[in-house]
Amino acid sequence: MVRIVVAGCSYGGLRCLLNLRKLFPEAELVGIDPSPYHVNITGFPKYFAGEVHHMELLLPLQEFLAKHHIEYLQEEVTGLSPQSKHIYTSKRRMDYDYLVLAFGASHKQIPTATTGLFSPYTLQEVKELRSYLEKHIYQGKPIQAVVVGAGLAGIEWSCALAAYLKDKGTVTILERSTQILTGYSDKIRAYVRKILAEKKIQVKLGVNVQKIQHPSITLDKGKIPFTTVLLFAGVQNHPLVDKLNLEHNEKGILVKNTLQTPTYSNVFCVGDVVSLANNLTQPIKRATSALIQGKIAAENIAHHYARENLQNYEVHEMPLGIYLGTHEGLVHYKGLQYTGWLAWWSKKWREMHYL
Ligand SMILES: Cc1cc2nc3c(=O)[nH]c(=O)nc-3n(C[C@H](O)[C@H](O)[C@H](O)COP(=O)(O)OP(=O)(O)OC[C@H]3O[C@@H](n4cnc5c(N)ncnc54)[C@H](O)[C@@H]3O)c2cc1C
Predict the structure, then answer these.
(1) For residue 337, is it within any domain?
(2) pLDDT in tens, 118-127
(3) Within this chain, do residues 139 and 43 fall inside the same structural domain, yes or no?
(4) What are 155-200's pLDDT values in tens digits?
(5) Ligand 1: which residues within 6 Å by Cβ?
(6) Cα separation values, 68 from 17, 71, 72, 144, 296, Å
(7) What is the structure's pLDDT at 110?
(8) Among 12, 102, 290, 327, which one is least packed by beta carbons within 10 Å?
(9) According to the model, what pLDDT value does residue 278 have?
């Protein structure tokens, strides 16, 4: 019986496992993840704004995978011998016929630790941010919230902060580039700027953060005071990437367009861990890209097993949904754009039904 192991059970890994189950009803499928839950991180801003309960963001892996007859190991992958087809975890050595690496990327860490500084990438961190702000609000202190980075996460979090604070504080976005949402269209940027202005969220472009030390941020020109700073400094390779004896660069593990590693045709990668070897255009590191890649990797494993031609993953425009506060959002796909309550609702619905 064929044994397929998937390392990392989040958007890309879970999508892959579910598709593999359909394509290989009899195969031995194993999902490995140190976390007992898949956490729907894209819903964090809505959770913070009080629009969803934290239980709606958690998918218990043991229970979910068992329903699909997939074995789940709550373990951490620590190494790999691709020549002998062995993967190592914190507890064991396992063999595999096919392996899918879907353990994501790491968020860039903050070099300085200071009061009021948060990177809300875990539910725990979001809860800590909330209790920190509640404490200040109860003391009657006005909140000065600063978000560093005007990418997708920075914009969504600014709107979540504005929805949470209402008249109890201000929100300012600092961005090094001369525009918000670099890489997105002018039409998207124009609408988002309009909403930010309506919510009185201040945007400072072309500014470099030099130092964050409570109670102020030092910029290249001047200082701004803060109660809290949320830092979205982007992603970097997961530390495991260096340990797997696979070709990689600063964007992730190198794969061909079939999502196979160049040297080992039975090792596939999906999601934030992917770096396309022969492409100038890299996929945007988003949950939507991970989901598509998870599906294609599963189909390509079936093709490879049946000795058929494999399909290529093409980087193309994905539907974009942006949360812009309670009952406010933007959805853009293939030139079509809609906004307001419908966009807010459809993004929320999509996030609850992506698997
Ligand atoms: C605040 C925020 C908002 C976002 N909003 C959006 C959005 O609206 N839309 C969108 O498309 N994208 C969004 N993204 C990006 C999206 O979250 C990522 O692109 C997506 O999570 C990548 O999915 P993945 O499957 O590659 O892996 P990840 O989601 O990064 O998960 C990796 C999994 O691997 C596991 N793992 C880690 N180490 C090991 C190991 N050693 N062994 C085994 N397993 C391991 C982890 O526990 C985890 O379950 C957002 C990101 C952030 C931070």
Answers:
(1) no
(2) 989 999 999 9
(3) no
(4) 999 999 999 999 999 999 999 999 999 988 999 999 999 999 999 9
(5) 7-13, 32-35, 38, 41-42, 44, 76-77, 102-104, 121, 152-153, 240, 271-272, 285-288, 290
(6) 9, 9, 11, 47, 19
(7) 63
(8) 327
(9) 79
Residue 326, in any domain of the structure: no
CA of 230 to the centre of ligand 1 (A): 18
User: Are 117 and 195 in the same domain?
Assistant: yes
* 142 and 210 assigned to the same domain: yes
Last residue of a domain, one of 233, 262, 277: 233
- Best residue among 5, 6, 11, 14 to mutate for probing ligand 1's pocket (most ligand atoms within 8 Å of CB) is 11
Residue 178's CB is within 10 A of a number of other CB atoms, namely 8
Q: What are phi and psi of 225, to 5 degrees?
A: -75, 155
Domain of residue 204 covers: 109-233
Which structure tokens are listed for 33? 């993840």
Q: Which long-range contacts (CB under 8 A, 24 or more apart) does 217-220 make?
A: 217/146, 217/148, 217/174, 219/174
DSSP three-state, residue 270: coil
* Beta-strand pair 98-101/267-269: parallel
Which token pair is 249?
Answer: 């660069």
What is the whole-number distance in angstroms between the Cα of residue 34 and the centre of ligand 1? Answer: 13
- Cα(216) to centroid(ligand 1), Å: 31
Task: Find out whether 132 and 190 touch, Cβ atoms under 8 Å.
Answer: no
**Does the predicted TM-score (pTM) go above 0.85?**
yes
CB atoms within 10 A of CB 113: 8
Pocket test for ligand 1, best of 19, 230, 286 (most atoms within 8 A of CB): 286
User: What CATH number did the domain enclosing 264 receive?
Assistant: 3.50.50.60
H/E run at residue 81: strand 77-81
Q: Residue range 308-323: average pLDDT?
A: 92
Residues 102 and 239 in one domain: yes
CA of 310 to the centre of ligand 1 (A): 26
The number of the ligand 1 atom at minimal distance from the alpha carbon of 89 is: 42
Segment 15-36 shows an average pLDDT of 98
Is 343 inside any structural domain? no
What is the Rg, in whole angstroms, of the alpha carbon atoms belonging to the chain?
21
